[in-house]
Amino acid sequence: MSDPDQPLRYVDIGINLGDPVFRGEYHGKQVHEDDMEDIIERAREVGCSKFMVTGSDLEESRHAVDIAQRYPGFCYATVGVHPCQAKHFESFPGGPSKLLEELKTLALESKAAGHTVAFGEIGLDYDRLFLSPMDQQLKYFEAQLDLAVEIQLPLFLHSRAASEDFERLLAPRLAKLPKGGLVHSFTGTLDEMNRLVALGLDIGVNGCSMKTEENLEVVKAIPLERLQIETDGPWCEIRPSHASSKYLEGAPALPKAVRKEKWQKGCMVKGRNEPIAIAHVAHVIAKVKGITATEVCQAAWKNSIRMFGLGEEEEEA
């Protein structure tokens, strides 16, 4: 599905590289050796030349910035507090205003250094209110949106079962954010996608975005100029039970996957998604849209550079 003369270039705009599983640690226990360098090398070999490392709370945002410092020009960070972590604002030493101040300082300093390219992962998640209640999610989504406007960073967004409130809070602020933002790991309806695109937002697609036939209809309808691609590793792999799996015929082969207890160098770990699998995400999108993987990758690359910079000059139209 791709032009053999033109190597594919990928940006994985959502990779949780700070997760301990990428260092061989599961539930606080070291199960196998740290294979982060192998994971990165595998991704580079398939053409994944930019990573956006997701910040999900203050500590993880600092960790994302550290990774970006360690891999300059290749890894870039997002800074923000995920809606499922919103309750931490209330328990933070010094209170919510102190946490917002710490986020602002981290974002400003790391943006100036060229390491942070987006404010997020922020948004609303009404599927998991047991993790953070609705009132706190709303309050601190709004506060972080205002912070992003102040800092002038594009948004890295999360929306689950909350489209009405999500759009209501977002829409009035987008005019003040020239680079807009991206709704990552999108699993919403066709109407929802169309409304977000009408607001000028991009849509991030990974394995979780393509589980059902309904999901695939949405992916088919995403305008190419609004598409970005991701793995969201270590989660959101394409599984055999997903509607998308039937489109994997002819996709680039992935390394053998083994159970974590049977880990061996050069192998993937079962159930641990990693950035090399972005090739499968692009392949499925191409099949669903009836275009080449090259077209998918070129559009997604251009869109990611336009929005986030990532140390590249924006290509002329």
UniProtKB/TrEMBL annotation:
One GO molecular-function entry: 3'-5'-DNA exonuclease activity
Keyword set includes Nuclease: yes
Listed Gene3D superfamilies: Metal-dependent hydrolases
One GO biological process term: cellular response to oxidative stress
GO cellular component terms given for this protein: cytosol
Residues the record lists as binding a divalent metal cation 2: 158, 184
CDD domains: TatD_DNAse
Binding-site positions, a divalent metal cation 1: 121, 232
Keyword terms: Hydrolase, Metal-binding, Nuclease
Domain of life the protein comes from: Eukaryota
Entry keyword annotation includes Phosphoprotein: no
Pfam families registered for this protein in UniProt: TatD_DNase
Family as reported in the entry's similarity comment: Belongs to the metallo-dependent hydrolases superfamily. TatD-type hydrolase family.
Name of the protein in question: Uncharacterized protein
Organism: Penicilliopsis zonata CBS 506.65
